[in-house]
Specification:
The complex is a heterodimer of chains A (about 170) and B (about 750). Chain A starts with about 40 loop residues before the first strand and ends with a helix. Helix content of chain A is about 25%, strand content about 20%. Chain A has about 170 residues and is of the alpha/beta class. In chain B, strand 6 and strand 7 form a beta hairpin. Helices cover about 50% and strands about 10% of the residues of chain B. Classes of the chains: A alpha/beta (about 170), B alpha+beta (about 750). At the A-B interface, helix 1, strand 6 and helix 4 of A face helix 21, strand 20 and helix 27 of B. Strand 6 of chain A pairs antiparallel with strand 20 of chain B.
């Protein structure tokens, strides 16, 4: 795993529950327990991908960009999660906010061995998910398509794992 | 302790600056007795050592020749340490070392060694530890007797030549020590061994703690400062009053961490008030610019007049901070005043900065009388003659000039009878009102007056200038000029900073092993650099990169950091020793424990390591920064304020850094527009990089992965800002960038963070 600087370990997960909802930084982000806004976007090869393709799976939706150091620091963790849980009803999805789109994202994916779908974000998805101003911002979506947690800033793989674990055990759809 | 058995040698030590002592009327030129004598110091480069080269005392420089002589003749070493702008060092030189009779006693009984502490802070710090431990007091001149094996056994500071207030007279002390050596030779050897070993244990047991320094320490320091703050005159405590730039650094940090809190506001208010009072005071050279070392009173009026490079550097930087925070041009003007003085008077033709200007100077050309401050003080008649009555009445009113002199209250020596030390007593507005003039007219008159008086002052004999180039101090000054270039948008300051850095690189740096030398004067230095030479120069280079975006300086900083780590890091206990341990003639290694007039190398290093880790995402260096801070935990819990600059490093090490990358060509106007806005702001936890699409970008591409993916968007300069491990959308829009720069940093104390810390432990 890529070496993560110590200071990045001071994470700021903003679990959308209880009092933390009041945190200004995500005050207008999508509400927990609400349905994740649907979307259809192209992946780095120009193929359309939509959220509804993944109905019934636990999804981590990661807004990121190649130039963003804390986003990059999370990626090895996401690759590991995909390896570990893809066959248990889980998928990672990256939403790249790189303005240059696939031309920079595709080589990056190769280099980092990214093993999950990445779509090129647009203004609509940024607005729909709460006018995302800062990345990484990451949403955890359950099998029913509801947002159960959201995080802003570098977050440990273990934190994600602790959230998706119980969701994966719940196999009812 | 066995020191008790030496009560026969217990020498009451006089503080070197004991204000009750008056030496008026005894002044003789240190250069007046040059005629016949020449001793072993004549081949030295240090101006301070050269001042003693014609003493009848047979001085040796620190080195093998003297050591051998002491061993062979079985003589004690008399080690005398001072520096060129030390007033009482000059007094002792005039009274005692120039006196043939005293010299005879010294030469007959001792091998006499002179050390310039600015060249050899290592020897100085060991002797200081010894003198403080044995007498409870220390200062300069510092005089220590060593056995032929160079172990100290008795010492003190200033000794008068003649009986005065019952203080031990130097000649008697010399004879007494010599007599003891004669009679109790073996006992002295035994005691010196014992003392050395105790001292070593004591010094080395300190500053290797592994306990975490708590953020509460910052609060404690703040409270101590608030308590000792002088509401009337600014500054902290009473007389004498030092500028304490490290304290100002700390106060600005405390403000920036919580600008809305009452502590934050008060911290800022204390710092700004102090800076205003100092700028108005006599400690400030109102005509020539720059600051004197400290004031003997509590109102910043009558200073000790020497001007030290390290003070100019740190004060210029403090005024720049104040300007960034307040946007009040007063602080910019004062910062310029200091930088312009250093550019004009303290910068050598090759770019290096000189060390200091003396306090004492000849009272008149051609006469041999010297007096402290003679170059800087005025009689009212002189001013009236130079300015004519119209200008003089305004000038005298504003600068508190009086016929009977204005310094009587602070002048304990009587040297300033009838003299005026300029101090801003009234504002332009008050003067305009009093003389029924427009403010502009007063301003103009004052400008003319200053120019005329400065010209008149140029006719006076100048104080001596110590023109050796000290690497560490040059580092501090490079920082100040680099920051001045950024904050004041002044290309000339950048050039000065670059030339000084080139000078140090050219003359004081050895490329093959990335090592530094300590000092330069008329040729190569013989002394290897100390930890502070590395620390301060690295700091200068980091600031120089952020002003010039020449990655060469960042690379040099980085290799010097590696070298400093290799030479000085305490592998057993963390933090840096001041010395490399390669000199067999030193008794032991110390780390220092005090951010004084010069900051501690460890404090500056801790901050350098934090900043380097921000640049290069180097976790190793970050850890070393934390270990360095923690090593001083015991010292900090004893006395938080003794390490103000260490607390600055602590604040930085706990902060979420703001990483600002501007993508664009340096010389394009859109890039400059963005940079100017960044540079205007006080953001002590920010790191600024330029993705220039050229060699600078290529450099970072190899060091930090994400840099390859940073480009100008829409063909325009673009700001990429990440903070608190979150990145904002890149922007070309200067207004958006300003909003992001000014956005409040999420406090490390918010419940969200506390939660996240718990979550992180999973």
């Amino acid at each position: 795993m890529r070496h993560v600087p110590n200071y990045l370990k001071m994470t700021l997960p903003l679990v959308l529950a209880s009092s933390l909802l009041a945190d200004a930084r995500l005050s207008h982000a999508v509400d927990a327990s609400k349905a994740a806004p649907g979307w259809q976007l192209n992946d780095v090869d120009g193929k359309p991908v939509k959220l509804s393709d993944f109905i019934g799976k636990v999804v981590i939706l990661d807004f990121w960009a190649t130039w963003c150091p804390p986003c990059r620091a999370e990626i090895p963790g996401f690759v590991a999660l995909q390896n570990k849980y893809a066959d248990k009803g889980f998928t990672m999805i990256g939403v790249s906010l790189d303005r240059q789109g696939a031309s920079v994202v595709k080589p990056f994916m190769r280099k980092f061995g990214m093993n999950y779908p990445v779509v090129i974000g647009d203004e609509k998805i940024v607005a729909d998910y709460g006018e995302i101003e800062a990345i990484p911002t990451t949403f955890v979506i359950d099998r029913q398509g509801k947002v159960v947690a959201a995080y802003q800033g570098f977050t440990e793989q273990a934190t994600f794992e602790s959230v998706i674990g119980p969701l994966l055990e719940n196999t009812r759809s | 302790m066995s020191l008790d058995s030496w009560s026969c040698l217990a020498i009451a030590i006089l503080a070197p600056l004991a204000s009750t002592l008056s030496f008026a009327g005894q002044a003789r030129s240190p250069f007046s007795d040059r005629s016949h004598n020449t001793n072993h110091l004549i081949h030295e480069k240090s101006p301070y050592l050269l001042q003693h080269a014609h003493n009848p005392v047979d001085w040796y420089p620190w080195g093998e020749e003297a050591f051998t002589k002491a061993r062979k003749e079985n003589k004690l070493i008399f080690l005398s340490i001072g520096y060129s702008t030390c007033h009482w060092c000059h007094v002792m030189e005039r009274e005692s070392y120039s006196d043939p009779e005293i010299a005879k006693v010294m030469n007959a009984n001792f091998v006499n060694i002179k050390v310039d502490r600015e060249e050899r802070p290592d020897i100085d710090s060991i002797c200081m530890a010894f003198v403080v431990a044995t007498t409870g007091n220390g200062g300069w001149p510092m005089n220590v007797w060593l056995t032929p094996e160079r172990r100290p056994f008795v010492g003190g500071t200033y000794f008068p030549a003649r009986d005065r207030d019952g203080a031990p007279v130097f000649k008697n002390v010399l004879l007494q020590v010599a007599g003891e050596w004669e009679k109790r030779h073996d006992r002295i050897i035994a005691v010196s061994k014992e003392i050395t070993s105790r001292l070593q244990t004591f010094v080395q047991s300190g500053n290797s703690s592994k306990q975490k320094v708590s953020r509460e320490t910052l609060k404690k320091a703040y409270e101590e400062l608030a308590k000792s703050f002088d509401r009337e005159s600014g500054g902290f405590g009473g007389a004498p009053k030092f500028p304490q730039p490290v304290v100002l650094n700390l106060l600005f940090r405390i403000f920036a961490a919580a600008p809305e809190s009452s502590d934050g506001k008060h911290a800022l208010a204390m710092a700004l008030f102090t800076l205003r009072k100092m700028a108005a005071g006599g400690i400030h050279d109102h005509l020539g610019g720059g600051f004197h070392r400290y004031s003997v009173d509590s109102v910043w009026h009558v200073p000790h007049f020497e001007k030290m490079l390290y003070d100019q550097a740190q004060l210029a930087s403090a005024y720049l901070d104040a300007y960034q925070i307040t946007r009040d041009s007063f602080f910019a003007t004062t910062a310029r005043d200091v930088l312009d003085y250093v550019q004009r008077d303290m910068t050598g033709p090759e770019g290096g900065f000189y060390s200091a200007e003396d306090a004492d100077s000849l009272v008149r050309t051609g006469k041999s009388d010297r007096a402290e401050g003679a170059f800087y003080v005025w009689e009212k008649d002189e001013i009236d003659d130079v300015l004519g009555s119209d200008r003089a009445k305004i000038f005298d009113y504003i600068y508190g000039v009086e016929a009977k002199g204005n310094a009587a209250e602070s002048d304990t020596s009587g040297e300033l009878i009838g003299k005026n030390v300029l101090i801003e007593r009234h504002s332009l507005e008050e003067a305009a009102k009093k003389f029924d003039l427009k403010e502009d007219q007063v301003r103009q008159s004052l400008q003319e007056s200053k120019k005329l008086l400065l010209e008149a002052r140029h006719q006076r004999p100048r104080p001596n200038r110590d023109d050796k180039v000290v690497t560490s101090w040059n580092g501090l000054m490079i920082s100040a000029f680099a920051r001045g270039a950024r904050v004041l948008n002044e290309a000339g300051y950048l050039k000065t900073a670059q030339e000084a850095a080139q000078f140090v690189q050219g003359k004081l740096y050895r490329q093959k092993d990335h090592s530094l030398q300590r000092t330069y004067r008329e040729g190569e230095s013989k002394i290897n650099g100390f930890s502070d030479d590395y620390a301060f120069f690295i700091q200068g280079l980091l600031d120089l990169y952020e002003a010039s975006f020449d990655t060469h300086w960042l690379e040099l900083a980085s290799s010097l950091q590696e070298r400093q780590n290799a030479l000085f890091w305490d592998r057993e206990g963390a933090a840096y020793f001041t010395t490399s341990g390669q000199d067999p003639n030193l008794l032991f290694r110390t780390k220092g424990d005090y951010d004084g007039a010069e900051p501690l190398a460890n404090s500056v290093s801790a901050l350098n390591l934090v900043r380097l880790s921000w640049f290069f995402e180097n976790n190793e260096w970050r850890k070393m920064a934390e270990q360095t801070i923690d090593a001083f935990e015991a010292e900090l819990s004893r006395s938080a304020l003794s390490l103000a600059q260490m607390l600055v490093a602590l604040d930085a090490s706990e902060a979420a850094p703001k990483q600002v990358v501007i993508a664009g060509k340096w010389d394009c106007s859109d890039t400059q527009t963005l940079l100017r806005e960044v540079n205007h702001r006080y953001q002590p936890n920010a790191v600024l990089m330029l993705a220039d699409g050229g060699s600078g970008q290529a450099y970072f591409d190899q060091k930090i992965e994400f840099f390859k993916d940073v480009h100008p968007l829409n063909g325009k300069a673009t700001a990429y800002i990440c903070e608190n491990f979150v990145c904002r959308e890149p922007t070309n829009d200067v207004a958006v960038m300003i909003r992001l720069l000014d956005a409040k940093v999420t406090s490390g104390k918010s419940p969200a963070t506390d939660n996240s810390k718990n979550a992180g432990k999973e």
